[in-house]
Amino acid sequence: MKDNENNAAKEKRFVDVDAIEKVIAELPLLARQGKIGVVNIQRALKCGFPAAAKIYDLIKDKSRIKIEKNIFELDAKRQMLYLEQLINDALPDSGYAPDEVYERLYAEMTVIDELGMAADFLFAQSIAEILRELSDIPCFVGIGCCSLVAYTIGITGTELDPIEHGLIFERGFREGRKPEMPFSFCVPEEILPEFMGRMNKIYGEALLCKHDGGLVLSVGDTSVTVLDSI
Is 110 exposed, middle or buried (0-12, 13-18, 19+ CB in 10 A)? Predict the structure, then answer.
């Protein structure tokens, strides 16, 4: 049984290597087309942003092409494109057919664009992905649970389906009014050092931590609250 598990792990590594090599080979073409590496590599490898950031570190010394590692290096238009692609990639695992949720997702994305909140969703998604690697405990709290976009890309977890629970997006996200701290996470004290280590590795010195009724992680104009208990 253990041999089978080891063989499966080896096969997965080979697949990952093949995928990485394929992406590296496509970089010159993507650059000539004016496309952003962060979007295309993440989609090609079917991995989240934290995993993709590690891959950028591996390939940046092997290519003369500049690759944007940090999502906050992207302009607002490209942040929206990246968020849209995350939704499209995640929809097959959401339990909903695209035609069932298209109208609501489109309405939410319209408001997210108008409020300039794509970066908020991307930052929260990267935090949620890291936390899922460190803990199985549901960790999301905040008004963001009303968002089907947040549910679809994995911010709020499988237990917080806004359609199933009748949560209304407009209650927390109104046109012309950006909610204050829409995304908060509970991070148990025992995993906080490792969590912060991973966050700092991705966002580096741009990540600011401060105590003000909780730990606040800020990059650019985007902030997420971290609580040690609910």
Answer: exposed
